[in-house]
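> example.struct
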């Protein structure tokens, strides 16, 4: 993932090359800050909070694997909401150090 400095250099290049106009609308996306906002899930102007989870997985196999496991939890728990709650509690128990170690393997 590019750094903010790399993205700024890219934007400057696009401006210099005339690929975008200086007055063109632009949105800066900072994943860490966006993740924090999603975790806080503050109410919008109408007082509504998000309840829908949408994730793009990196491969068709990962999509199948995730849904197979989620379905297994639903069947065992008897309710999708309870299954999701169990999955979140289990994920929360794993320390960051363990996640990093697994990512290295």
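> example.seq
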């Amino acid at each position: 993932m590019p750094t903010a400095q790399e993205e700024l250099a890219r934007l400057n290049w696009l401006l210099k090359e005339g690929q975008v106009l200086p007055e063109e609308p632009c949105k800066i996306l900072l994943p860490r800050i966006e993740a924090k906002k999603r975790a806080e899930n503050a109410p919008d102007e109408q007082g509504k909070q998000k309840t829908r989870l949408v994730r793009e997985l990196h491969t068709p196999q990962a999509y199948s694997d995730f849904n197979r496991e989620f379905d297994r939890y639903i069947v065992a728990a008897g309710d999708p909401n309870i299954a999701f709650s169990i999955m979140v509690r289990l994920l929360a128990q794993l320390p960051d150090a363990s996640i990093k170690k697994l990512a290295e393997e």
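> remarks
The helical segments are 4-16, 31-40, 60-77, 80-93, 96-104.
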